[in-house]
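User: Show me a protein chain along with its predicted structure.
Assistant: Here is one chain, sequence first, then structure tokens.
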Amino acid sequence: MDLVIDANILFAALIKDIITSDIMLHDDIHLYAPEYLIDEFEEYRNLIKGKTN
């Protein structure tokens, strides 16, 4: 299955232990994201690191 994700979905999956992260890591899932997602991730990297376990 092909899925397009945005920053909100990625960040939520990284921060919370929710089913979204399980789905994203499934072998049958192919993820696509806009190019700006990398920039957004870099901008919020420290915040995300502070909220993850």
